[in-house]
Amino acid sequence: xxxxxxxxxxxxxxxxxxxxxxxxxxxxxxxxxxxxxxxxxxxxxxxxxxxxxxxxxxxxxxxxxxxxxxxxxxxxxxxxxxxxxxxxxxxxxxxxxxxxxxxxxxxxxxxxxxxxxxxxxxxxxxx
Length: 127
Fold this sequence. Notes:
Layout: H1 11-24, H2 47-104
């Protein structure tokens, strides 16, 4: 198998990390509530353009932070769903293998226990 064709991740760690990602994005950064004061005082000629630049930069940064938070939340949800799916598939596969082995045990084979030497305990008889 080539690289990327198997998943060797620890599903418990995946699920725990997903919860951490969820917790990270629950806290709303104070930057998201920052408002730009549009008042200009003392006749500063550059005040208007400076306020506009501040408002633009604040909005751009708030949008960026919001998108990062959404991305982290989406990745956390993906990691959680993947971890649960891999864990459940692993458990189902193991149960399926055991069930098949149990159901097919001895199927099509003749009973050779009578041919065993007397010193070998018969597995069909309780001890």
